[in-house]
Amino acid sequence: MPLTLWFVASIIAHTGSDYSTSIAWLRTPFATALMILLLLALFHHTALGLQVVIEDYVHSGVKFAAVIAVR
Question: What is the pTM for the complete model shown?
Fold first, then answer.
C-alpha cells in the first residue's frame, strides 16, 4: 500500500511535466528502486490472484499445468 500511495503521489506531482523531466525523475536511484519494488509487488500479487482463479474455476487436467505456468 505505501508503494501505491507513493506512485499515485508521484504521478500527481509530475502532472504537466514533459517527457524528459519524467524520465529524469525516474532515473534517480530512489525513484528507480521504489518503482522496481512496486512492479515486483504488482507482479507477485497478479500471480497469486491468477493462481486462485485457476484453482477455483479450472476443473480439468489442465489445472496443474496452468498453475505451474502462472508460477
Answer: 0.78
